[in-house]
């Protein structure tokens, strides 16, 4: 655990650390430090169910960080490291000219309203509020975007969307064609089988599938099986009748011979 009495580094002003210590839960927040605005991820550490430490990972949003972000960006720091509001905000910018393009009135509106934006010389200026663990706005990320580049990017997105939609439609059409062809093939097979049955051939059999047509084929196969069994029973009965008639004829002949 942190021991300021031992190491001399009092961190009681760190609201995020106090929040994690109190609530024993993860915190991801912006925070003002000695080096400016930082994005911090803080997690409580437990051992055997006991809270024993805090693990922290931080990233300072400095000028080198701005260079890796698309478009031109400004960081505006509104508080000092002691949590006091600055009379004059500290601006960290990739392009020094950008600060000249944003008036004090625009800056005030950016601070008060995250939805505020303005257009100037073909560029869009908008803002993202950086809030600390208590929800206070401690900094701003002001972005400058070329409308011309944004329109070109939107056209690319539209083309990509159109291409993907066309591809999906083609795939759907192909799948439907294959399904319809399969159904048509199965229906033709059923019709051919029924024609054979109508002509007296009860030995035919349909090849079933897992779809609805296959269920019909399976039902017809079961019907044909029962008809075949019934026909065999009829044949056996007919044979028995023939035998009985033959036996009766033999007995009749024998009786006639005796009488004569």
From TrEMBL:
The chain crosses the membrane at residues 159-180. One of its GO terms (cellular component) is membrane. The keyword Transmembrane helix applies. It comes from the Bacteria. The keyword Membrane applies. Residues 181-232 form the HAMP domain. Pfam families: HAMP. Gene3D superfamilies: 6.10.340.10. Keywords: Membrane, Transmembrane, Transmembrane helix. One of its GO terms (biological process) is signal transduction. This is HAMP domain-containing protein. It comes from Fervidobacterium gondwanense DSM 13020.
């Amino acid at each position: 655990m942190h021991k300021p009495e031992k190491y001399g580094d009092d961190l009681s002003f760190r609201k995020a650390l106090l929040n994690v210590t109190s609530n024993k839960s993860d915190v991801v927040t912006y925070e003002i430090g000695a080096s400016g605005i930082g994005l911090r991820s803080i997690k409580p550490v437990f051992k055997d169910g006991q809270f024993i430490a805090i693990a922290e990972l931080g990233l300072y949003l400095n000028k080198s960080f701005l260079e890796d972000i698309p478009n031109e960006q400004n960081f505006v720091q509104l508080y000092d490291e002691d949590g006091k509001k600055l009379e004059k905000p500290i601006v960290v910018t990739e392009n020094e000219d950008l600060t000249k393009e944003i008036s004090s009135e625009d800056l005030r509106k950016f601070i008060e309203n995250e939805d505020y934006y303005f257009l100037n010389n073909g560029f869009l200026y908008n803002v993202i509020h950086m809030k600390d663990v208590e929800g206070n706005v401690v900094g701003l990320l002001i972005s400058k975007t070329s409308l011309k580049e944004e329109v070109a990017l939107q056209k690319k997105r539209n083309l990509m969307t159109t291409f993907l939609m066309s591809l999906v439609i083609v795939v759907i059409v192909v799948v439907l064609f294959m399904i319809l062809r399969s159904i048509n093939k199965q229906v033709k097979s059923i019709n051919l089988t029924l024609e054979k049955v109508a002509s007296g051939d009860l030995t035919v059999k349909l090849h079933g599938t897992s779809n609805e047509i296959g269920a019909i084929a399976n039902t017809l196969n079961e019907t044909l099986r029962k008809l075949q069994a019934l026909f065999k029973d009829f044949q056996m009965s007919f044979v028995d009748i023939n035998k009985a008639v033959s036996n009766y004829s033999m007995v009749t002949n024998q009786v006639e011979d005796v009488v004569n």
